[in-house]
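[stage:ingest] chain + small molecule (iron/sulfur cluster)
[stage:ingest] validated
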Amino acid sequence: MSKLEFSTFKCFGCTLKGKKKVWGQGNYKNKVIFIGEAPGANEEKFGKPFIGRSGNLLNIMLGEAGIDRELFYVTNVVKCRPYNNRKPRVNEISWCERLLKLEIAKIKPYLIVTLGSTATNVILPNSKSMKLIVGKINKIKIDSYLYLVFPIYHPSYVLRGGIGSEEYLNLFLSLKKVICGIYLTQYRRLRWLISEICGK
Ligand code: SF4
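[stage:predict] done
[stage:export] tokens:
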């Protein structure tokens, strides 16, 4: 597990300034990143993204789709837990978005998986509603690099009954196909990785 920390980043105007930061973690060399919204209580306590109820559901879905979470990098749009677990405010998102862009610039991922509307709206600012783009490959240029983006609902949306778990799992099965498609064209030389993830 590697963390990407940008400790010199200045958070001057953010209303969450001074709170504990939960940095993105995971294997970023495999060039697939998952982006959620913000840390919750457990994430803040243990300093790791997606380890509460939402993280548990994410792990289950990835596991059932045959995707090993440990092989990829997981982060959030906002690195500090908003007070009372509320949704991050515009001010917080716009400050912390700069950190996210630093992470993306460092990793230059082949695929960005956005989990939920907050992450999707940050990465695909002109996107239509989640329903229209979820489970589809979108393209976006960030600082002159073209990225592929695959939006999926946030696990908390599923926990609230937004969609059923079978429909949710289908998105992860589609995601696996997308990852394998990318690896087979861009990452052929890493045969062990293709074999590990795609069973080939
Ligand atoms: S949410 Fe982001 S910008 Fe705001 S204080 Fe935390 S790290 Fe800094």
